[in-house]
Amino acid sequence: MHTPACAKAMFILAGAVSVAAPAAAQNDFASRVIDYSPAPGQFVSDPAFNDPTRALGAPVGGGTINPDLSSLVSLGGFGGSITLAFDNPVENDPDNPLGLDFIVFGNAFYVGANPNRRWAEAGLVEISFDTNSNGLADDAWFTIPGSALNAPVTLPLPTALNGPVLENTSNDDTETHWGYADLSPTLLLGDTDADNVVDDPNADPAVFYTVPDDPMTTGVDAGSGGGDAFDIAWAIDPITGAPANLPGFHFIRITSAVDFSSTIFGENSPEIDAVADVRPIVTCLADVNNDGMLSPADFSAWVSAFNAGSPAADQNRDGHVTPADFSAWVANYNAGCDA
């Protein structure tokens, strides 16, 4: 029960305070195809899976058990790739939720509804900043090494990622495999607690699918739309392993990184649905229900977010949801829009 905290909050709150609703971000998703070079595969000649423009814009989620197949592009077998561009750079922003900067969406799903057994086809992620400002992807590329690679980066990925069923071998909720595309499911739009039921039928894809899930823990965090989230700070020089220290990126390349084919299911081939720029935490942090007003209803929304472990409850921006976030919420509420 949260009765004492609730009583304290109601004592502190003095009616509704009007605040400006968070402005809609522009260019939340990759908007241009720079290159599509699929490797041979069973779906690359199928018009339902070989249109690279399907990787633009928001994803179309199907949930943790039955992925949606209407908005995917296949990379084919080992070495196939797609290169996408953003109109504005995706920034390396430590103030983003969990410190994560972008999300890649595919069609992974849980086998037998078990988040420790994922049907996943890993794709290597590389990013590039348009240093020469010519709008072309001709600057240096840097690699997200993920959980299995070190410099010098060579492919294919280790056989532990052959799948197509990836087993989480940790003894707790720590994820064994992370840092690659198409490892995690894309939720139904508006499914705020990853139970395959739409809780918010009016959810905005540009909001719902720009909240990252913690890639290093099993399951999908409450409030996130799923997919595989990345921190730009993870990027390294693929030869030396030196940190890339990128301020952001304009271009992203995703490559089919597993060289494996089964007699039943064919080649391991990532399918890509979208790439999202994570939205920073809104300045009016205390407006937890995002209705443009600071009111007692935001405390109830914070309690719900806290109980669900949602990033919305992380009011002190330390990347963890703890009781200390209640005091931070009160401070943010009293500070209003400048919190």
Short description:
This protein is α+β, with helices and mostly antiparallel strands. The chain contains 4 helices and 17 strands.
Task: Give an overview of the whole structure.
The chain is of the alpha+beta class and 339 residues long. The protein has two domains: 254 residues, no CATH class; 56 residues, no CATH class. It is 12% helix and 21% strand. The chain contains four helices and 17 strands. Strands 2-4-12-8-9 form a five-stranded antiparallel β-sheet, with no helix packed on it. A three-stranded antiparallel β-sheet has the order 11-5-16, with no helix packed on it. It starts with a helix and ends with a helix. The N terminus is likely disordered.
Question: Layout of helices and strands, plus pairs?
Answer:
Blueprint: H1 3-12, E1 17-18, E2 32-37, E3 73-74, E4 81-91, E5 102-105, E6 109-111, E7 114-119, E8 123-128, E9 142-144, E10 165-167, H2 205-208, E11 228-230, E12 248-256, E13 261-262, E14 266-267, E15 271-272, E16 274-277, E17 293-294, H3 296-308, H4 324-335
Antiparallel strand pairs: 1-17, 2-4, 3-15, 4-12, 5-11, 5-16, 6-7, 7-10, 8-9, 8-12, 13-14
